[in-house]
Design a protein that fits this description.
The chain is α+β, with helices and mostly antiparallel strands. The chain has a single domain, classed as Muramoyl-pentapeptide Carboxypeptidase, domain 2.
Length: 171
């Protein structure tokens, strides 16, 4: 089912709307998390966050893979394209570095961490969620990928970005 009103919008308006939808999704994700965090503490909130991302990441990756018409094993090129269509890409500054059979995905400016910093909150300890999220995203795009954390709060090893993930394509 299509919203017929969308047919009246220009390409620029549709791009703006995608950005609005993406920011709305992020706001919803952040609001539920902060409510859990206030009510039950960070550990319980993180436990539930991990469970949500185990499911959402696979859904997101499958839909992007289908949209891009990627084959079962699209390799580095397919992952590169898919990462650029994630929700995060519409509101976070990122970069992708490819070298041989590895792809490094770096979020240079994370809207979540920036928002928490502005509110005087501690950074979101996202490494455990990120390992699930980025690992499952890569495996869903191509099951030959493994993903390792290069840097992510609270284990920051690279201060030039908010987080960094290394995907390795194993044959």
């Amino acid at each position: 089912m299509t919203n017929e009103f969308l047919n009246q919008l220009s390409k620029e308006e549709l791009i703006d709307l995608i950005e609005i939808y993406s920011k709305n999704w992020l706001a919803d994700d952040g609001l539920w998390f902060q409510e859990f965090e206030k009510a039950y503490g960070m550990d319980v909130a993180m436990d539930h966050d991990c469970k949500v991302w185990e499911k959402f990441t696979v859904i997101e990756a499958k839909k992007i893979k289908q949209f891009l018409k990627l084959p079962e094993h699209p390799g580095i090129d397919g992952l590169n394209k898919a990462l650029q269509l994630r929700f995060y890409c519409n509101f976070s500054k990122d970069e992708i570095l490819i070298e041989g059979n590895t792809l490094t995905y770096r979020i240079l400016e994370c809207r979540v961490q920036h928002a928490r910093e502005l509110k005087g909150m501690e950074f979101h300890p996202c490494k455990s969620v990120g390992e699930i999220e980025y690992g499952l995203f890569g495996k869903t795009i191509d099951d030959r990928f493994t993903c390792e954390t290069l840097s992510c709060y609270p284990d920051v090893t690279d201060t030039t970005c908010h987080c960094a993930w290394k995907y390795t394509l194993n044959d």
